[in-house]
Design brief:
- There is one protein chain.
- This protein is mainly β.
- The protein is built from four helices and 13 strands.
- The chain has helices at 32-35, 48-51, 193-196, 201-204, and strands spanning 2-3, 9-10, 80-88, 99-103, 129-133, 139-145, 150-151, 159-160, 163-168, 177-182, 210-211, 222-225, 228-229.
- Strands 3, 6, 11, 12 and 13 form a five-stranded mixed β-sheet that branches. The chain has a four-stranded antiparallel β-sheet with strand order 5-4-9-10, with no helix packed on it.
- A hairpin with an 8-residue loop joins strand 9 and strand 10.
- The protein is globular and about 50 Å long.
- Bound molecules: fe (ii) ion (FE2).
- The site of fe (ii) ion has 3 residues, from strand 9.
C-alpha cells in the first residue's frame, strides 16, 4: 500500500516491463509509421487515478448483451459459437465483476460500420458488439457467430485472420487491455502483420483460443476457451503496436 498526500491508502501496482507487446512502429503494419509517438514516452507516477478505474455495475448491462445472436429479429447467419474463459491478474487470481466488451465482423467478414464497404454481405440480424461482467470466479461468456476473415489493404491480398476484439478495464487503469482473440490453426496467421508484430512466437499463442469440447453442445454450438491475463509474466499482449 502507498499513501497519497491526502492520506488515502491505495494499492500499489508494479510498473511492468511490457516487452512482450508489439513495437510502436512495426514496419509490416504500415499505418504505425504515421501514428507511433515520435518522442520518448513519459512515465507517470502511479497515483490514485492510475490504480483505480471506472466501476461499471451489472445494472448497466442489458439481459442479452452477452448473446450476440439475439440482437436482431432472427438469428444471424453463421457458425454458432460460445467463447468463454477467465480473466486473471498477474498472480493468476480471478478478476471478478469486471467489464468485458467485444466487437467483431459478421460471418462474412464485414463490420456494420460506415468505413467497411468491401463487397461482403451485411447481416440484418447481426450487430457484432457485446459485453458482460465476469462472475465471482472471473469467468466470462459470449454466444455469437464465428467471424469471417476480411481484407484490409495493408498490402496486396492482405487478409486478417478471423478474430474478436476484446476490451477490458480490470480493476484499475494499469490493468487496461485492448486486444484480439484468434481461432486455432488459422491459415492466415503466417501473413498477418498485426498477429506477427508480437515479437515472441510463444507470447503470440496467448492470443489464440482453443477448441473446447466441454462447451461444445450437440446440434447447437462449437465452444472456444480463452483465458485473459491482465498483467505479469503470463500477460495477454496488446493487440497492436502499443506503449
Ligand atoms: Fe477487426
Amino acid at each position: 500500500m502507498t499513501e497519497t498526500e491526502s492520506g488515502i491508502s491505495i494499492p500499489s501496482y508494479r510498473r511492468e516491463n511490457r516487452e512482450i507487446d508489439p513495437p510502436l512502429d512495426y514496419e509490416g503494419y504500415r499505418s504505425t509509421a504515421l501514428r507511433h509517438p515520435k518522442n520518448p514516452l513519459v512515465l507517470l507516477p502511479h497515483m490514485l487515478t492510475e490504480v483505480t478505474g471506472p466501476v461499471l455495475g451489472e445494472g448497466r448491462l442489458g439481459p442479452y448483451d452477452w448473446d450476440l445472436t439475439r440482437h436482431g429479429d432472427a438469428e444471424p447467419i453463421g457458425q454458432r459459437i460460445q467463447v468463454s474463459g477467465r480473466v486473471l491478474d498477474s498472480d493468476g487470481r480471478p478478476v471478478p465483476n469486471t467489464l468485458v466488451e467485444v466487437w467483431q465482423a459478421n460471418a462474412a467478414g464485414r463490420y456494420r460500420h460506415i468505413v467497411d464497404q468491401w463487397p461482403a454481405p451485411l447481416d440484418p440480424n447481426f450487430v457484432g458488439v457485446g459485453r458482460c461482467m465476469t462472475d465471482s470466479e472471473g469467468r466470462y461468456r459470449f454466444l455469437t457467430v464465428k467471424p469471417g476473415a476480411y481484407p484490409w489493404k495493408n498490402h496486396h491480398n492482405a487478409w486478417r485472420p478471423a478474430h474478436i476484439h476484446f476490451s477490458l478495464f480490470g480493476r484499475a487503469f494499469t490493468q487496461r487491455l485492448v486486444t484480439q482473440m484468434y481461432f486455432p490453426d488459422d491459415p492466415l496467421f503466417s501473413e498477418d502483420p498485426i498477429f506477427n508484430s508480437v515479437p515472441d512466437p510463444e507470447v503470440r499463442k496467448r492470443m489464440v483460443s482453443r477448441h473446447d469440447w466441454e462447451t461444445t453442445e450437440d446440434h447447437w454450438q462449437l465452444g472456444f476457451k480463452w483465458d485473459i491475463v491482465l498483467r505479469g509474466r503470463d500477460a495477454t499482449v496488446f493487440e497492436e503496436p502499443h506503449a
